[in-house]
Amino acid sequence: MTIDRRTLLTGSAAAGSLALMSRAEAQSRCIFGAIRWDARYCDAPGQPCYEEEQILGPQKWHFRAPLHTTVLGPNKIKFEPTQATFDAEIRAARAGGLSYWAYLMYGDPQSGVIDLNQSMMKGLAFHRASAIRSQMNYAMMVQTSTLGSVGAYGAAVSAVLDLMHDSNYQTCLGGRPVLFLYYSEADLKGVWGASYANLKGALDAVRAGALGRGLGDPYIIVMTPPPTVAEAVRTALGADAISTYAVPIPQNYSATYDQLDQMTQAYWESEAAAAPAGVVPTVMIGWDTRPRKEHPPYWERNITPAHPDMTKYVTAPTAIQFAGECRAAIRFVNAHQKTCRSRLVLIYAWNEDSEGGPLEPTLGDPKGARLLALKGTISR
User: Fold this and answer.
1) How far apart are CA 189 and CA 109, in angstroms?
2) Where are the domains positioned within the chain?
3) With contact defined as beta carbons under 8 Å apart, do 28 and 340 qualify?
């Protein structure tokens, strides 16, 4: 698929479309962020970043590659990030109205502790080293495998608390540090002895540690589908809200973006019904996994069909369509103010380049048309 440049808004056209918003929408104070899955900051075989280079290597997928990509040939690219290219991401996200990035955190496979030196965490390293880091907040999306293990979570908890000390760490509700928990049932069984109580012990330690350091009471958001399961986990762990990394979509789902938008909004309503205590809605930018069907990464080779149907994907949204879903999220939050009291909204995703379609500027969209369209839509 190629980008039809006629469907992308210029800055002035985007501003005109956003003028159609109601005053109530424009004055809302939702806190929009976007997920970062940072498989784009290294070039080492065996790493997810290397796999992503191979997936986006064919010329027809170059348009999805990040701006720090060098095209070496019709079927070969290389990621070449620098502090300057990362700072450009900060400026682009800020200009688009984003308040924070939610970093999916990776850890040492042996200790289960967040490892800021590994390839998947180099984006956060660039962020923390940036002279303009204060222009973009961040929050952690810890996995159930990066909080330690049964009876051995002290080091992991300490790593979480150290990051919460950063001056640009995202908070809500008057200073509560935001912490997303990417929940895995397999991790509960394999790492936490199939016991919610064991995992809750680690989260309780995070709470106590944050309060003890004067950081505020963490606002913990459980991320897993479906909403009824997420709410059961939230209750068991004493967390504050539920969300999802991405609205669940069947592997060979085929639809227009408008249909995905309808599915997404219905999912928000099911979350609100299941979890009146707290919901963070996830906005979907798309779902087009054809690059991964052609070149499955090592972590998906056991689930990708031998002869994938390349006609099955969600069509990419125009900038206007995507901005429309963000406005719908604002309306949802305003309509469920008790349930969405944090006023947090999460976008899937900043840089899931090969899986769903990126929000970030790319080789095919260097000015970030969707970000331009969001000016005025996302209120700080």
Assistant:
1) 16
2) 5-37+79-289+302-374
3) no
Torsion sign (Cα): 168, 330, 227, 234: positive
The residue among 208, 322, 189 whose CA lies nearest residue 260 is 322
Contact predicate 66/351, CB 8 Å:
yes
pLDDT in 10s for each residue of the chain, 380 residues: 322 222 222 233 333 333 344 444 444 589 999 999 999 998 889 999 999 999 999 999 999 999 999 999 999 999 999 999 999 999 999 999 999 999 999 998 788 899 999 999 999 999 999 999 999 999 999 999 999 999 999 999 999 999 999 999 999 999 999 999 999 999 999 999 999 999 999 999 999 999 999 999 999 999 999 999 999 999 999 999 999 999 998 877 899 999 999 999 999 999 999 999 999 999 999 999 999 999 999 999 888 777 888 889 999 999 999 999 999 999 999 999 999 999 999 999 999 999 987 999 999 999 998 888 887 676 44
Parallel, antiparallel, or unpaired: how do β-strands 69-73 and 76-79 relate? antiparallel
Closest CA to 93 of 373, 360, 370: 360
- Specify the 3-state DSSP secondary structure of 346: strand
Strand 171-172 to strand 241-243: parallel, antiparallel, or no bridges (unpaired)? unpaired
CA distances from 270 to 88, 228, 348, 358 (A): 37, 9, 18, 26
User: What is the helix (H) or strand (E) element at residue 260, kind and residue range?
Assistant: helix 257-274
Distance CA 171, CA 356 (A): 27
> How would you class 4 by CB atoms within 10 Å of its CB: exposed for 0-12, middle for 13-18, buried for 19 or more?
exposed
Put residue 318 in one of left, alpha, beta given phi > 0 → left and psi -120 to 50 → alpha: beta
Q: For domain 5-37+79-289+302-374, give the CATH number.
A: 3.20.20.70
Side-chain-side CA neighbours of residue 113 (13 Å): 13
Yes or no: say if 266 and 226 are a contact pair by the CB < 8 Å rule: no
User: Which of 132, 100, 74, 90 minimizes the C-alpha distance to 380?
Assistant: 100
Please state, in angstroms and rounded to a whole number, the distance separating the CA atoms of residues 245 and 31.
17
Which residues are registered as beta bridge partners of 33? 100, 346
